[in-house]
Amino acid sequence: MAQRSGWSHAGVSNGYRYEFEQPIAELERRLQDMQKDPARDPQALKALEVQLEQLKRKIYGNLSPWQRVQLARHPQRPYTLDYASGLLSDRVELHGDRLYGDDRALVGGLGKFEGRPCVFLGHQKGRDTKENLMRNFGSAHPEGYRKALRFMRLAEKFKLPILVFIDTPGAYPGIGAEERGQAHSIAYNIREMARVKVPIYICVIGEGGSGGALGVGVGDWIAMLENAYYSVISPEGCAAILWRDRARAPDAAEALKLTSRDLLQLEIIDEIIEEPLGGAHHGAEAIVERLRGSITRFLNLAEGLPLPELLERRYARFRRLGLFTTKPASAPLPPPAPSAPS
Q1: Distance from C-alpha of 84 to C-alpha of 87, rounded to nearest angstrom
Q2: Bridge partners of residue 259, in order along the sequence
Q3: What does each of the 342 residues of the chain score in pLDDT, given as a tens digit?
Q4: CA–CA separation, 118 and 109 (whole Å)
Q5: Which of 143, 169, 260, 278 could form a disulfide with 272 if both were Cys (CB 3.0 to 4.6 A apart)?
Q6: Is 52 exposed, middle or buried (0-12, 13-18, 19+ CB in 10 A)?
Q7: What distance lies between CA 229 and its chain's CA centroid?
């Protein structure tokens, strides 16, 4: 087994809490106060620990789609470079699209996964305001997608598998990005990824927003973390269009069928990777090991397939998406009567 690089995650389990997590936060505060009390009752302490565990299972076991979207955006959630650090040894990050510049919202480079040389790439957000501005909040520009394609060409040249981590609210929609060919860059990547001649593993680790995700989202196996989401539009954007009210984002999240369970049922994704109770930021090391197992299984399968079969399966996989059937509203019209001879 290859030597694994060290990894320290910036997030901590008792950090930022959403509104639906406040009962858990309150019980945790009570537990901490009791643990600090020298005269604490061991039985009462144990009872409070049991109560906290039950509350977590009740809340996190019944999350709504909107609550999962919130967890996907949690500021302490692991990002692409965290996973790359945990999964890969001998990492070398590469920069620039060789045409315009280096987009820090989309990162990637070379590394070794369990001794296998590979190429990795993915969206990267920041941990604070300064870094988020530098990373453009994970929303890539055209040069980011061109950089990603450059990495894929490198992988193809040296016959290296590609690992992709998706985590973006969407591609950057600014005027400059449009002037530099944002739509073309995404569409071109989608076409080219369909025929890249090496195995491509993809995992949605947080937000999977629209074309920003699709620009690096064509592959042979698409996994998704349990509390990630993958959607044609953000819930807020959908609510603003349908109801002219962004406050109805929870309703939009329900309608969009954007959770991992919905997408597995619809056969949009291939695998759900279970997260620790409360989200990936409550046990990132466990997620890394589950990802390691998923990637290993995929590579063992993909590397045993002839290249034409691998590409045919990839093509067929995406051609299957979006199939549906409709029931006729009424019986079909009878065929016309034959015309009388003249």
Answers
A1: 5
A2: 229
A3: 333 444 444 434 446 889 999 999 999 898 888 888 887 888 888 999 899 999 999 999 999 999 999 999 999 999 999 999 999 999 999 999 999 999 999 999 999 999 999 999 999 999 999 999 999 999 999 999 999 999 999 999 999 999 999 999 999 999 999 999 999 999 999 999 999 999 999 999 999 998 999 999 999 999 999 999 999 999 999 999 999 999 999 999 999 999 999 999 999 999 999 999 999 999 889 999 999 999 999 999 998 899 999 999 999 999 888 776 666 655 555 666 666 665
A4: 9
A5: 260
A6: middle
A7: 7
Which of 159, 91, 187, 154 has the alpha carbon at shortest distance from 299?
A: 159
Q: Give the predicted TM-score (pTM) of the model.
A: 0.87
CA distances from 326 to 25, 323, 334 (A): 47, 10, 20
**Which residue type is seen at 54?**
Q
Six-digit token string for 1: 């087994």
Q: What is the largest CA-CA distance in the chain?
A: 109
Dihedral angle computed from the Cα positions of residues 317, 318, 319 and 323, in that order, rounded to the nearest 10 degrees: 100
Residues constituting the chain: 342
Query: Quick one: tokens of 326?
Result: 């409709």
